[in-house]
Write a structure and sequence with these properties.
Bound molecules: ligand C2E, magnesium ion
Shape: globular
Radius of gyration: 20 Å
Number of strands: 10
Number of helices: 10
Distance between the termini: 66 Å
Order of helices and strands: HEEEHHEHHEHEHEHHEHEE
Largest sheet: 10 strands, mixed
Length: about 270
């Protein structure tokens, strides 16, 4: 009987795996179509300084599917990242972001953050393509921040560092997104040209209830500040979190408490 059960389980997992592959295939081909059919759009989420002035915004991709409605990047980015499709999506969002920055009146201090996937960053022509886009849209390099995750550092680190250096020499900045969820230490990040750390939402969401999470964020913030990093807290949702974060010193705050991501075409400065 056990054997029979085991057999059934294998079939079940098999079927689930097949369904999973089919789902990925549908999303992948749907995305190819989305690029062609103009179903993608640029959304922006504002970020604020401790004094509540506008610090900048983060560019976030959205997929408006004609039948399924809005599909979350949390669902389709990981699938796009499995192939060069992420390079096409990445090129698209970069061009949209820089075009928006050129055509929108913002302060010189306004910084636009764009998420960059490891596969996109590792392309040999990433730096030249970005430079060409920045020239086309007259981008002030100091207004562009590239958000990368710690997973980039498991790639060829010498090449990663070299590319980061050539971009920072131009004046572009780097931010470590979802900081704290990966394996890299502050000591390691110090050896890279990085200007900003974005503390992951999972820590921020717990600082109200969990003393341990609060202590952890306090220590990360204190060390990061002493090391000269700009600090961003992501996923700030409550007044209590704002107060706790402000008590830890000046940092940039981003989250639903302040502003939800909004269509770039609807952008209004607050
Ligand atoms: P991320 O870069 O860490 O972006 C922050 C995510 O948290 C966004 O989700 C944002 O809408 C969400 N968020 C912001 N504030 C709050 C809050 O207060 N509470 C909660 N619960 N969530 C908040 P989104 O737009 O769904 O994007 C998810 C992820 O998809 C991003 O995480 C990023 O890793 C990826 N992604 C989005 N757009 C792009 C893109 O253009 N290129 C690449 N490579 N990845 C992208
Ligand atoms: Mg991000
Ligand atoms: Mg993040
Ligand atoms: Mg995150």
């Amino acid at each position: 009987q056990a054997k029979e059960k085991g057999g059934n389980q294998i079939t079940l997992y098999d079927d689930q795996y097949k369904a999973h592959l089919e789902q990925n295939f549908i999303i992948h081909s749907g995305l190819l179509n989305a690029l062609k059919e103009d179903q993608l759009s640029l959304f922006l989420q504002a970020k604020y300084n401790a004094d509540t002035s506008l610090a900048g915004a983060e560019a976030l991709l959205r997929w408006q599917h004609p039948e399924k409605g809005m599909i979350s990047p949390g669902l389709f980015i990981p699938i796009a990242e499995k192939s060069d499709l992420i390079v096409d999506l990445g090129d698209w969002i970069l061009a949209q972001s820089l075009a928006w920055l050129e055509s929108t009146p913002v302060e010189d201090s306004f910084q636009l953050s764009v998420n960059i996937s490891p596969r996109q960053f590792m392309r040999t022509d990433f730096v030249t393509k970005l430079e060409a886009l920045m020239a086309k849209y007259h981008t002030r390099p100091s207004q562009l921040v590239l958000e990368v995750t710690e997973s980039l550092f498991i790639d060829d680190i010498d090449e990663v560092k070299q590319k980061m250096l050539s971009l920072t020499e131009l004046g572009v900045q780097f931010s470590i997104d979802d900081f704290g969820t990966g394996y890299s230490s502050l000591a390691y990040i110090r050896s890279l040209p990085v200007q900003e750390l974005k503390i992951d939402r999972s820590f921020i969401s717990e600082i109200g209830q969990d003393k341990g999470a609060r202590a952890l964020v306090e220590v990360i913030v204190a060390i990061a500040r002493h090391m000269g990093f700009r600090i961003v807290a992501e996923g700030v949702e409550t007044r209590e979190q704002v107060e706790l974060l402000n008590s830890m010193g000046a940092m940039v705050l981003q989250g639903f408490y302040f502003a939800r991501p909004q269509a770039a075409s609807d952008w209004s400065v607050k």
